[in-house]
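Section 5.1 Outputs to date
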Amino acid sequence: MPEDYYVEYDDEETVNAIARALERCGCSVVKVEADEDAYIRIREEDPDIVFNIAEGLRGESRESHIPAMLEMLSIPYTGSGPLTLAVCLDKALTHRVLSAYGLPSPKFQVFEDGREELDNSLEFPLIVKPICEGSSKGVRSTSLVKDEESLRKQVLWVISTYKQPAIVEEFLPGREFTIGILGNRDPIILPIVEILLDKLPKGANPIYSYEAKWVWDTPDKPLDILRCPADIPSNLEAKLRDIAVKTFRVLRCRDICRIDVRLDRYGEPCIMEVNPLPGLIPNPDAHSALPTAARVAGYSYDELICTILWYALERYGMEDRLEDRSLVKFPRSL
């Protein structure tokens, strides 16, 4: 398996932190491993609601597996549905849907076997990624390619290593931002986070790669790589917020989402990826972007978790089931 195989799975620290937060707001918590026995365990436990953080085990729609099981069992859960999770994991499908709604996303081409002729609308430099991965899996510093030879080498590496097509996108040379969203009907935009790519080690390509997230920037030796709130003019902030809300609604995201945006050569925002199952690492030094934005907005970690739960309960008409709302941060209290 590739060395980054496990990076998108939550570790015990995160799982236990979520469980403690839910217990603090009055829930009785049972932890269920999202493996092949999950369906049986869920049927046996028969929970009122599931706080879903399952990334799935395998396959192009793996993030949809647990939500699909829950819907079959008529069990409520937090977060987006199976269709949204499946579409958003597929980068090409996400770009196609957003483009159909007039939302800006990069030009791209999918390589199934690496022998395809490069589309003449794409100009170097380009960036090569696995088509159905998150957490920067398969995105290395070498993924930014500047000639045909490097492109072919990287595409073949992605296909052989991750057993899936490679997506080749135009490289967006501007600043990079990530935008956290909470809620549903009137989604709340958390303070915008900028990825400070100039803080990467000398000689590194200006992309938020696997090395940038998991090798160079660690809790023991954190890079000063996130700025929140981002230092941006009001007109750019308004554009980012507008694009984020429209993307959230077009893709039918629910309760929580994070949208990654980068500026093109003209300084206009372009949507790179949509993550309806964003990381919720509690350690501030781990630089988990959505919890970082929530802290700046005034949420404690426990408040963030309990507010996500409350939004899901509200969707199902179950908000009265949560007797202790002391950790729920309602929109009017922001």
